[in-house]
């Protein structure tokens, strides 16, 4: 199977998302770049203290088993622009 974003999504849907859904979480594929897969955990998995372990032991392990050419699975832990905008809106409402 060729390493494409669609092929990665297929493995995420079949093998990884059901596990995360059991914990009220999900995973979003952000991009595939030079053999690296960039993901973000969402829902209850976002910001969880076990997010790094989840990434390494569930997501990376299964993706690398399906696609040996993957060099690394990188967890994006940055705060999204949407979330920052929501927080600013909430704070500005409280100060008026």
Can you summarize this structure?
This protein is α+β, with helices and mostly antiparallel strands. The protein is built from three helices and three strands.
Biggest sheet overview: 3 strands, mixed
How many separate domains make up the residues?
A: 1
CATH fourth-tier homologous superfamily? Fe-S cluster assembly (FSCA)
SSE succession: HEEHEH
Radius of gyration from the CA trace? 15 Å
Cα distance spanning the termini: 56 Å
CATH class: Alpha Beta
Enumerate how many helices there are, as a single number: 3
Q: Which CATH architecture is right? A: 2-Layer Sandwich
Beta-strand residue fraction: 15-25%
Mean pLDDT: 88
CATH topology: GMP Synthetase, Chain A, domain 3
The amount of helix comes to 40-55%
Low-pLDDT runs of 5+ residues are none
Function: May be involved in the formation or repair of [Fe-S] clusters present in iron-sulfur proteins.
Protein name: NifU family protein
Pfam families: NifU
Domain NIF system FeS cluster assembly NifU C-terminal: 8-74
Descriptive key words:
single chain, alpha+beta, GMP Synthetase, Chain A, domain 3, three-stranded mixed sheet, 22% strand
How would you describe the overall organization of this protein?
The chain is α+β, with helices and mostly antiparallel strands. It has a single domain (5-94), classed as 2-Layer Sandwich (GMP Synthetase, Chain A, domain 3). Helix content is 49%, strand content 22%. The chain has helices at residues 5-21, 51-66, 81-94, and strands spanning 25-33, 36-43, 72-75. A three-stranded mixed β-sheet has the order 1-2-3, with helices on one face. Helix 1 (5-21) crosses helix 2. It is elongated, with a radius of gyration of 15 Å. The N and C termini lie far apart (56 Å).
């Amino acid at each position: 199977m060729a390493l494409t974003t669609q092929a990665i999504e297929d493995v995420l849907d079949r093998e990884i998302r059901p596990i995360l859904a059991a914990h009220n979480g999900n995973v979003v594929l952000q991009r595939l770049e030079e053999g690296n897969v960039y993901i973000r955990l969402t829902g209850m998995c976002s910001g969880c203290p076990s997010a790094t372990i989840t990434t390494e032991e569930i997501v990376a392990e299964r993706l690398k088993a399906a696609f040996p050419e993957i060099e690394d699975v990188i967890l994006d832990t940055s705060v999204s622009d949407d979330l920052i905008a929501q927080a600013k809106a909430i704070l500005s409402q409280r100060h008026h």
